[in-house]
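Internal ticket #5521
Category: modeling
Description: The requester needs a full-assembly model to guide mutagenesis choices. All entity lines are attached below as received. Residue total reported by intake: 519.
Assigned to: D.W.
Attached entities:
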Amino acid sequence: MDIVFKINKYSSLFKSILFVSVKNIKNFILKLAQTSAFKKLPLLVFVLITPFLFIFLLLLIQDKILYIIPPVKLNYQAEMETLLEKQKQKAVSQIIYLQQRLNAKTPGSSYLIINSSTNEFKLFSGLKEIRRGICSTGSYVQLESDNQKWLFKTPKGVLRVQGKTENPVWIKPDWAFIEEGLPVPPKGHYSRYEYGTLGDYALSLGNGYLIHGTLYKRFLGMPVTHGCVRMNDEDLEKVYKSLTIGSKVYIY
Amino acid sequence: MVSKFENTIQSNIVKYRNAIKYVTTAVIVILLMIAVLMLYAPFSNLQKFNKVYSDSTLISFDKEELLNDEKFFELKKHEAYLKSKLLVAKNDSISLSINLPDSTISIEVQGVLLHQSKLTSISNSMFFERASHLALFNYFQSPFKTNKSISNIEKEPVIYMKAPKDTVEAAKNQLIADTSLAKRVYVRIELERGLTIILTDNQSKWSRSYIYNTFSSGLLRFGLSLRDIFHFKVPSYNPVIRIKLDRNSLISIYRAIPDKAYVTIHM
């Protein structure tokens, strides 16, 4: 009973404080609205924005403030002239040597460079570009079934041609059925074999990734594949005939 | 009763006005202090930079004064750049090369040039123009490793798709194009040894994420400076190289380079 009485007493006290506070705040705001301070709202906004402007101005000046100090005066003694000429010649020959060493890193035989962001390819023979064109690479779609997931991405890095096939047959993997909402047939089932879809030639890059032709030529230049690289018939033929087993394929 | 209340309000307003005056004065003093320290930072860092990288034992020729000859300095920088590229070529991963005198940016793997693009604009911090030749030569003569790279586009634009239940649902699944190509691209690469490279495309179109990244990087820089100031240290200052290039090239380069890519710079 005593506790109930205390609770009632404190709650009424709290209510009265709250009432007075609300009333006071309301009065204060009304009074403030009549004063010039309220009319200075744009000034308040300015005060709030100024620190940010200050920060960015400061960062801008910070990057350029070193302009006020003079650049380092470059002096060297005249007797160094002969030494300087010698060193210059040495540097030039060193540059030529280093450039040659760098050029030697480029394969002498044919190789292929694929840009998976713009879906373009360039075929080189040594330092000479022999063909360029559009292709299709991985769509970056991640297909998720109840217990498995596949990321349709073209692998990046340095790969090598591991095999070459004419009139390739596509052996459809499980995801090809799952993606189409079809039941997955057992391994070796006739429905897994598809003829003509990969074009006239295929070059294997390992792990099931191929460079092959396509029936969907309107999608060339777009990221639509399941990780393989698709090309049109003419480009594919040129690439097939230029690259040998072991040729390098650079994908980025 | 009313007049007493009014008096209280009046005295409160006076108090608030005084408080605002004091707070404003204090804020202005603090901001001025921050400004002075932040503007002092480049000078202090330049001094430190010139001291740390002025080790003449790192150069292969006897007289370091020779670097004061502009032509010789250019040749030595080119030589150092090629040496860096050869060093990085030993690595199997894709590296980034920025050649500022030639205004080109390229990606390479094992020394093979994969992609090259022309830079449409280059803007460097004044820091590089005021540093000593010897320090600059030593600073840029070895490749940089990336600490962190930030961008407003995804490194891998993955599209998540649930397997369709039947052929009807599968037919509804349409091809979704990569929309990241539609917005202005911003890439910020933070390298070791305190160097930052900001790459943007040369489009004039602005996007919310581009503005966000530009402002957030500014705020980040300011925040780091504040942290140093509150620890009674001269704020750190990292010189920046800002470059602009074709949008497709920028996207290709950003998506090609690994997270901890090596970067070689010909200054």
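Resolution: model delivered.
Comment from assignee: Chain B has a mean pLDDT of 86.
Ticket closed.
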